[in-house]
């Protein structure tokens, strides 16, 4: 069973879905495709992965095995990561560059 397959099966069972119901959600004609996914004989296409992630409210990274954290990233977390990156970049600026950046930001906000 592939990592994707085992996670799909685990999520399906956690949500008390039959393979047939999950096939309907994914737009498959029969449950055979879900069986193949769970057995690791087939992987869902990108649209299928997005449908699964949205339906089960998990991240794509979790579905494909890149993360063990099923929670999708929050906008707040993404914003904090961006702020941390900007802070790191600002720390590399010279005094003159920092002054120019301040003027730019202030003009942008007017």
From TrEMBL:
Taxonomically, the superkingdom here is Bacteria
Q: Which InterPro entries does the entry link to? A: Cro/C1-type_HTH, Lambda_DNA-bd_dom_sf
Q: Tell me where in this chain the HTH cro/C1-type domain is found.
A: 8-63
A GO molecular function term, named singly, is:
DNA binding
Q: Which UniProt keywords apply?
A: DNA-binding
Answer whether the UniProt record assigns the keyword DNA-binding to this protein. yes
PROSITE patterns hit by this protein:
HTH_CROC1 (PS50943)
In Swiss-Prot or TrEMBL terms, this protein is called Transcriptional regulator with XRE-family HTH domain
Source organism of the structure? Croceifilum oryzae
């Amino acid at each position: 069973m592939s990592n994707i397959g085992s996670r799909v099966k685990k999520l399906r069972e956690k949500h008390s879905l039959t393979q047939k119901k999950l096939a309907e959600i994914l737009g498959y004609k029969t449950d055979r495709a879900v069986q193949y996914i769970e057995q690791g004989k087939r992987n869902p296409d990108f649209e299928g992965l997005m449908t699964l992630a949205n339906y089960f409210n998990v991240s794509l990274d979790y579905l494909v095995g890149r993360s063990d954290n099923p929670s999708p990233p929050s906008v707040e977390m993404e914003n904090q990561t961006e702020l941390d990156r900007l802070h790191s970049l600002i720390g590399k600026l010279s005094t003159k560059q920092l002054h120019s950046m301040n003027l730019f930001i202030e003009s942008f906000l007017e």
